[in-house]
TrEMBL record:
Annotated source species: Rheinheimera muenzenbergensis
Official protein name in the record: Acyl-CoA thioesterase
A Pfam family recorded for this sequence: 4HBT_2
CDD domains for this protein: 4HBT
Keyword entries, A-Z: Hydrolase
Length: 136
């Protein structure tokens, strides 16, 4: 199973007057972790495009459990859970110092052929090659 972790120092411009991260910024944190995960198996957005596919997000679920605070360090872990017909990535955001769970999330991406603009109902062979897996 592929996973990647990043550490983010919560910046001042991401927080509200109570020094709590505004809920919309979590999406940005997920994106940074997702890019790190995709790079880990050499299939980031540039590679996707070069292979003839785009992979838009078609679903996102976020559950806020705790609050990230200004000047705290948070760890964002992204784990690839499904790849046969879509990319499903699960995320866990924790406070680095305490290990306290702050947010759980998941995203789903599907392959779209760049030329035809049609959605693929199975992940393309290039994804399996990048993951080092046989295509089903």
């Amino acid at each position: 199973m592929h996973s990647a972790e990043i550490i983010i120092d919560v910046p001042f411009f991401d927080v509200d007057a109570m020094q709590v991260v505004w809920h919309g910024h979590y999406v940005k944190y997920l994106e940074v972790a997702r890019c790190e995960l995709l790079r880990s198996f050499n299939y980031d957005y540039t590679d996707m495009s070069a292979s003839g596919y785009m992979w838009p997000i078609v679903d996102m679920q976020i559950k806020y459990v705790g609050s990230a605070l200004f000047a705290h360090k948070i760890k964002v872990k992204a784990t690839l859970k499904e790849w046969q017909n879509r990319l499903k990535i699960d995320y866990l955001i924790t406070d680095l110092a305490s290990g306290k769970k702050l947010t759980k999330a998941s995203t789903i991406q599907v392959a779209i052929d760049i030329n035809s603009k049609e959605m693929c109902f199975e992940s393309p062979a290039v994804l399996f090659e990048k993951l080092g897996l046989p295509q089903p």
